Amino acid sequence: MPAAPDLGAGRTSTLERVTSRVLIKNLSALDDGPVTVSGWVDTVRDQKKVQFVVLRDESGAVQLVNPRTTDAEGLVVADEPATSISGLAQGTFVTVTGQLKHDERVKLGGIEIKLATLTVVSAAIPETPIAADSSLDKRMDWRFLDLRNPKQNLIFRIQTTFEHALRTYWIEHDFIELHTPKLMASASESRAELFEVGYFETKAYLAQSPQFFKQMAQSAGFGKIFEVGPAFRADPSFTSRHATEFTSVDSEISWIDSHEDVMQLHEDLMVAGFTAVKAKHGDEVKALFDVEVTVPAQPFPRIPLAEAKEIVKSRGYEVPRDDDDMDPEGERQIAAYVLEKFGHEFVFLTDYASSIRPFYHMRHEGDESITKSYDLIFNGTEISTGAQREHRIEVLEAQAVEKGLDPAEIEGYLDFFRYGVPSHGGFGMGLARVLMLMLHQASIREVTYLFRGPTRLEP
Ligand code: AMO
């Protein structure tokens, strides 16, 4: 086959344009002439003298136009592709060829394609099961149709960009990527929220977090690691921010002095992610979600939890809890305060009480009642937990016992600390929570490809 003529960077030959599919977003950069596009039918306006079809693909939408043929008396003749167009159901996947024409009067991007041929690749059933006003639950039942919405499409492009930016940061800073097992012999966070599965003659548990194995990498001398993978929680709640399976973004580093080092890493990653999303999708996010993506300024505000509770109290909100923890409303209140005072969407709440943190969090020297830990709050909701870990085996074991754990059950984990280990710490972050709060969505269901909750295992 002869090589396609070289027309210089970015230009396509007429031959290529006819035989190979052009993405809709790339049409406007082409000169008028023949093109082939493929996608699904969004709307059909079948008028007397002309037919309009809005065709959508993964990159955008374009108007197709087909003037009807008339006979000598001016009566419309039934011909192709007019007959096929009249019978097109929304959602039908088609390939069309035609003449691209730039025309400022066309509202949809200032271009249209005058149809030459239309091939139905796969017809859709005419009655669509969901509409724009369908409930979230109904939309989730028909998620593959729901995802055809450009807003949904954009969410997953943003997710890709965000993850890529984090990964680039990690790789540029010599982190090792891990894939830790999701089948475990014991709990990795707490005995509550644990999924048990039959495992041959015995039973196994689904990993609630890569916690133990990301710490193991520090004993293994890996230095700096990250993992983006699934985590499972048998959490029966139906809140807007909980799923039974979610994507956890984890990172862990050696040789830290305190949780401050972890927070600095965390900040750097958020800045890298938000910078990339703003640069690549900022305009689209504004157009489709009416949200301004803001790259957070460093350093993020840090407030010890006890102080945060006092601030919230002075604003007239008493956290209704018997323990030392914050509640979701308290998190919203402190975020509102931080936004007013510092103009920042993020805040690290630090130094959580030992009574409400896991046994593996290191406690402050001189004040055992608080841990070297933090939660990262974004737009009023927790997106992450991080801490320096307790690496001294005697202290770790004592803290496990104090929390009611049987050391025998976590013997394998405790061994990681018996053969030498550096000081270390890290964090775990819910990917969907970041997206939900970045795009001002009401629920993580909106930003999770396929949500899993107490009453949802399909599709
Ligand atoms: P934690 O249990 O706080 O900490 O979880 C870390 C982050 O994971 C997200 N997350 C969830 N997202 C959706 N649905 C859920 N059911 C759910 N549960 C948690 C949240 C949360 O902030 N091992 C520690 C982390 C660490 O110290 O490194 C852990 O798992 O965004």
Helix and strand topology:
Elements: H1 14-19, E1 33-46, E2 50-57, E3 60-67, H2 82-86, E4 93-102, E5 111-122, H3 136-141, H4 143-146, H5 150-172, E6 176-177, E7 183-184, E8 196-199, E9 202-206, H6 211-219, E10 224-232, E11 245-254, H7 259-289, E12 302-304, H8 305-314, H9 328-342, E13 346-350, E14 363-364, E15 367-371, E16 373-378, E17 381-388, H10 393-402, H11 411-415, E18 424-430, H12 431-438
Parallel strand pairs: 3-5, 6-10, 12-13
Antiparallel strand pairs: 1-2, 1-4, 2-3, 4-5, 7-9, 8-9, 10-11, 11-18, 13-16, 14-15, 16-17, 17-18
Helix pairs in contact: 5-7, 8-9
The structure holds aspartyl-adenosine-5'-monophosphate.
How does the overall form come out from the CA principal axes?
A: elongated
CATH class annotation of the largest domain: Alpha Beta
- The mean pLDDT is 94
Can you say what the CATH homologous superfamily of the largest domain is?
Bira Bifunctional Protein, Domain 2
Number of DSSP-assigned strands: 18
Quaternary structure? single chain
CATH topology of the largest domain: BirA Bifunctional Protein, domain 2
SSE order: HEEEHEEHHHEEEEHEEHEHHEEEEEHHEH
Main sheet properties:
8 strands, mixed
Number of domains: 2
Low-confidence spans: 1-5
Structural class by SSE content: alpha+beta
